[in-house]
């Protein structure tokens, strides 16, 4: 009933224009390395003070959805994730571009993103209250094991050498402890520097590890993509889209579940979806070498996370990630107070906002489809020019976070570290994930021990904790088990 009453408001020309502009701007924001949906929405909020609430929220919905897809554009074409959620897109998307399938890769990303966003928006509309209750079942111990499980699986599974994956994760864990201790308020590893008090910003690390090394490769002439190899659509007609349906279904489910759990996000959903699809695949050796399902899974999952993240935010006032927190700020600016009463006192605007999440997922497909050929043309820019352009854009993007030259220098340092890690075949994704999950694991471990009076058995009391702990053990033991089986088979041969 509320949905039917809110739907006509979306036909207002100002609301439609706001959604179109927001979606286009969101794609552009996501496509620029160093920028993010959080930054785009944060910049937009002051400009929406004089707008009607639904107009402002429609534009915010467009930026949110558009930026999640936009991050895949540089990830596919240049091996630079435009947003943190684009890390897993690089694995197979960029390899497809190197094989002359950039247009197909962009189409797969666009379709997968649109499906994920639409599924997420429908879940937000229909399942917000009951699904929000799932997140309430997670206690501190459960969050600890979930974070450990995420770091363990990514560190081991994303590397041909588990030792190198764990080394990368340990590097990220070390970076994650820099700053203010959230439990005691003490400074840790700041070395007397004021700039380190707020910790290592994820965008600074992400841009350094993922944008600087490809830029160096471009300037050194090592990048193998050439405009002449780009598939502009002649071969994509033969692609079997139906083969991706199971991937979309599973990845959408993963994105929804991750979105419901506060403090996780699209980057974790994307990496988990990529790993799960690889586990289901019969051609595991093709993953990381241009597997279409390896591109569809993370793009569908990170977009399925968008509206799902807003479920606990709107119903309980608990933001699932930084973007949701900024959106809650936008709601408060326009006189809307998140919580159960939001669906009763401001039902028309609330359901209208949720409908804009669905409509902008369709607009994202149309705008993305029209611009796909233009995106591919970025490869026609000479590599000696493209490299410096990337450096300039990333520098501007990082500087814009806090207007800090220190963070620009830090980004360049991480860039050199990332360049060295690539040469040593050490994966960078576990480091980025550890910076995100490390503080979550530490904070919830200490909170669980405080609650239990330092009783270590408290960590494995709930069924959720026991299941997650068991999965961690399996993830740690599986490489050794696989190696033992191979050696046994070779010995018999």
UniProtKB/TrEMBL annotation:
Signal peptide as annotated in the record: none
This protein's record includes keyword Transmembrane helix: yes
Stretches that traverse the bilayer: 15-35, 42-64, 115-136, 143-160, 196-216, 253-274, 313-333, 353-372, 408-437, 458-481
Domain DUF112, residue spans: 16-433
Keyword terms of this UniProt record: Membrane, Transmembrane, Transmembrane helix
Protein name: C4-dicarboxylate ABC transporter permease
